[in-house]
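tool_call predict_complex ligand=glutamic acid
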Amino acid sequence: MPKSNIRVRFAPSPTGALHVGSVRTALFNWLFARHNQGVFILRLEDTDVARSSQEFTRQIIDSLNWLGLDTDEGPYFQSQRLELYRQAVSQLLISGRAYKCFCTPEELDAQRQRLRAEGKAFIYSGKCRSLSPEQIKDLEQKGIKSAVRLKVDPDEMITFEDIVFGTIQMTAGKFGDFIIQRSDGLPTYNLAVVVDDHAMGITHVIRGDDHLSNTPKQILVYRALGYEIPQFAHLPLILGPDRTRLSKRHGATSVLELKDQGFLPEAIVNFLALLGWAPDETTQIMSRSELIRRFSLKQVSRSAAVFDITKLLWMNGYYMRNLPQQEIINRAIEFFATSGYDIARCDRTWLEGIIRLEIERSKNFAEMLEHLRFFLDEEVRYEQSAVDKHLKKENVDLRLRKVAETLSALEDFTQPALEKALRGLAENLGVKFGHIVHPLRVAITGRTASPGIFDVLHFLGKERTLKRIQFARQFLIKSDDSNAEMTP
Ligand code: GLU
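tool_result ok
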């Protein structure tokens, strides 16, 4: 049960996947609601029928669920509330605060171009403002469709206190009579948003600052309908590290794509919370409950926030290391399964064992999978740079052969036994340990970096290890005859 009267909403349009900017808005609303023990509502603004889809609605809901941003009410769908908007428009028509506009798109376009040529912004001329009831009837009888415009007094001053941006002031003459219902009978955003925010008892409208310029219009709708005006808090823009508009180029993708890349919801929530808000100058890592406890709109900054994917990776790595290990293991297994690995065929203890090797070393599950593929795949894929650096070297074939002999004679394939055997071999051959380990690592993992070699050998097992060494030796013979000649 809510303990305060605070009610906020997240109102995305389901016309695309949920991106970083929108989800930050959702998160700030959610944190504000939870901090104040208020109500968090989800409302889908889907009146743009052509661009809205159920698939996007599902993605939005899935993204919020995955991040743990639970809603108290909704989802409401504007497409199911059209009657409410019609009633509001009709109230405004009856009270004379709005009027029907029969201007055709061509007419309006011509006007727009004329004004543009003069370097002016479009403001409706007010042509249909004073049509008589007879004229209206006449036009309607001819079947001409009309939009509805709010009648705006150009001298009316609109002032409001934005919680983030402070006092905002604008005269209505800046935008003139604007459309609240299109000629197809659908409400515009500025009408529907006001009707719904009022009907849903929204106390605080928290949204991106791209809507700052819509707010004066909405305030006029509130006034015309006689509704109480909520408080507004507009959130700063999010930019890439190069200070340009945030895009995929910056690694900023949809929430579900971040999920597919193996990021943890805990890290994403922590990271997004700091895009435009900070409780102090230094704190970075905050648990969900700490975020709720400390969150305040008063500390939201006006200046643009910077989305830095390397910071997200760092933060994700932190959560990988610091969440309960079993939890990370379970999620990693789930991630591997959804990435197409037939995990059910693997021995669970073995699987947990190899994941444990990588928890400290990976920043997300995609990286972890990349590092562990050589365990899961039947065949090893060589990285060219690794081959050049450690395989195509003098005496490598000889050394690999010696390693294979040593390992095949080994009964005990545990880490200490492996270490003893391989160190012994290096000594016998009179070479540095690295001269054995580096080529061996490339031979069995395909890479120059891996978890500790004895762990790798242990988990790969004797049979697969020997097969891979054999494969590497054949590969060397095939790819370099001079190397083959060096084989004694
Ligand atoms: N549907 C609008 C959007 O996605 C909502 C803006 C608002 O919160 O008022 O931008």
